[in-house]
Amino acid sequence: SLQCHIQNILYFIFIPWLVLHFSLGTNIFYFLAIISFLLVISFAPAATKKQPIPKHLLKKKKVLSILSFIIIITIALTLEEVFKKNVISGVVIESITLLPVFFPKED
């Protein structure tokens, strides 16, 4: 839907732009990464009525979500500061979208 596209543009273009243009300390990004990790542990994988996750795949997908998060953050830690902040902000955005508030009410 158009609303979804507008949200994605705001999340994945505007927020990284803000990261580049405002001087936020790296420690803030590390803190946000920890919060994001907790969100991934709590809410991943996210299923909807249109895209349900079979029960037999839930545990595997949760483990893969956590592993993917750890790999991405580990790689980000090796990057230059500006890239590190952008990767972490992307992970933060993705983890926030796991929250139930971002799933439309489906009947």
From TrEMBL:
The membrane spanning regions, by residue number, are: 28-47, 63-80
Q: What is the name listed in the Swiss-Prot or TrEMBL entry for this protein?
A: AgrB
Any Pfam family matching the protein = AgrB
- Give the InterPro entries listed for this entry: AgrB
The record's Gene Ontology cellular component field reads: membrane
Q: GO biological process: any one? A: quorum sensing
Q: Could you list this entry's UniProt keywords, alphabetically sorted.
A: Cell membrane, Hydrolase, Membrane, Protease, Quorum sensing, Transmembrane, Transmembrane helix, Virulence
What GO MF terms are annotated? peptidase activity
Domain of life where this protein originates: Bacteria
